[in-house]
Amino acid sequence: MMKLFGTALVTTGLFFTLTATGLVAEQQAKTATQITVPENYQNRFVRYSTVDQIGPKKVRFLYVNPEALRDAKPGQPAPYGTTIVMEDHRVELDGEGNPVLDSHGRLIPTDEIIAIIMQQKEKGWGADQADGDTLNVDWGYGIFTAEGIARAGIKYQSCHACHNRVAPQDYNFSFASFLERFKGE
After folding, report:
1. Is residue 19 scored above 70 in pLDDT?
2. What is the per-residue pLDDT across 21-47, written as a single tens digit (0 to 9) for each?
3. CA-CA distances (angstroms) from residue 21 to 24, 31, 118, 130, 155?
4. pLDDT value, residue 111
5. What is the CB-side half-sphere exposure of residue 21 using CA atoms within 13 A?
6. 27 membership: H or E segment, kind and range
């Protein structure tokens, strides 16, 4: 059973530039991910937000594993084992290529998944993907095809660098604020 807790309309957003790795072994080491797409996450995880991204013409569904949602506390770092899945969908377009909106002014997602992006917290995972000022301690990242296959050549150090902007929220853009609304006092 899927649960939807929050929605947001984003007309401008963060756009991540993902570049291919170089041939240097040190750079290649920072492209590895230990993360795999969880089986049946669409039914087992809790969908906690839906974000319309008008510019790139996509809708992003955000999921979190139920164990993390149960154990997480507002204002505290997420527990180890927290797995956040962002599932990007194409949107319906009209004959001129413009996004079609529903009666509430929201983008209408299609069933077509164009990417799965993940963030997972486990002890020491970040060190395999980033170092120095970009390291997010225990968070690791993964970018996958719709079929759950890890995309080759992704430099995950760029994920760490971007998420450093929300270090006070345990390196997460959406889950910490969701917890405040959902479990806050």
Report:
1. no
2. 232 333 333 445 788 999 999 999 999
3. 8, 7, 19, 13, 6
4. 97
5. 18
6. helix 25-29
Q: Does the pLDDT of residue 64 top 50, yes or no? A: yes
User: DSSP per residue over 58-109, as a string?
Assistant: EEEEEEE-HHHHHH--TTSPPPTT-EEEEEEEEE-B-TTSPBPB-TTS-B-E
157-173 pLDDT, tens digit per residue, is 888 888 989 989 999 99
Residue 125 phi/psi, 5-degree rounding, is -65, -35
Residue 157: Cβ within 10 Å count: 19
- In whole angstroms, what is the distance from residue 113 CA to residue 37 CA? 14
Residue 140: strand, helix, or coil: strand
Which residue type does 180 have?
E
Instruction: Assign domain 23-180 one CATH number from 3.50.70, 3.10.450, 3.40.1000, 3.40.50.
Output: 3.50.70
Strand partners, 107: 101
Structure tokens at 58: 């996509």
Domain ranges of the chain: 23-180
Spatial CB neighbours of 34, under 8 Å, sequence gap ≥ 6: 120, 122, 125, 128, 140
